[in-house]
Every structure is written in structure tokens, then in C-alpha cells.
Amino acid sequence: MTEPAFFVLTALVDVPRHGYGIVGEVAELSEGRVSLKIGTLYGVLDRLAGEDLVELDREEPHKGRLRRYYRLTDRGRRALTAEAARQAANAKAASQRLAAHRPATVGGLG
Prior knowledge:
The chain is α+β, with helices and mostly antiparallel strands. It has one domain (3-99): Arc Repressor Mutant, subunit A (Orthogonal Bundle), CATH 1.10.10.10. It contains 4 helices and 3 strands; from the N terminus they run αβααββα. It has helices at residues 3-11, 19-29, 38-50, 74-100, and strands spanning 17-18, 54-62, 65-72. A hairpin with a 2-residue loop joins strand 2 (54-62) and strand 3. 19% of the residues are buried.
């Protein structure tokens, strides 16, 4: 799962969101590490919808245009849960390895 897809799914866990809402939530969740452009976002959403991980919740008129809201599907929640567990296991393995192999500090102290 790509990092943008991971954060889009995460952004949709609590409530359905429209495009700009997803972009803002992804930026906040990733602490600015993932910055989605609207075109990129809709490519990710189309792919996730094709995999039945997200679906259209509703469309609302806003300033003369339709605003589409997306929600996480049950399959999307399961996929996100599995990916979060995989990433946590990877981070744990790396952290354990780093802790076990700390480089010696200057003068041999530490």
C-alpha cells in the first residue's frame, strides 16, 4: 500500500470527507510529510474505489459544483488495519535492531 493511500484511508476512518477535506486531513495526519494535489488525490481515490476500499458516500452542491464525499468501506477498514499492523511490526524490528547496535560514542562512553 502506498503512503498516500494509507493516509487517505486513515483520513476516512472517522467520517466521510470531500476532496479538500481529505487533502487537509492527510497533511495533518502525516505532519506535512504527505502533500496531495487534488489530481493525485482523485487518482488514489479511483484506485481505492476500484479495490472496494472506499466508496462514494454522497454528493452535495457547493458553490455551483458537486462536492463528493467518500467513506471507508468495511474492506477498506480491514486493509488499513492490516497495513497498520504490518508497518508497526516493521518499525518494531528496525527499532530493536537499532537499539541492539548502537554505535560507540566518542571516547568509548555510552
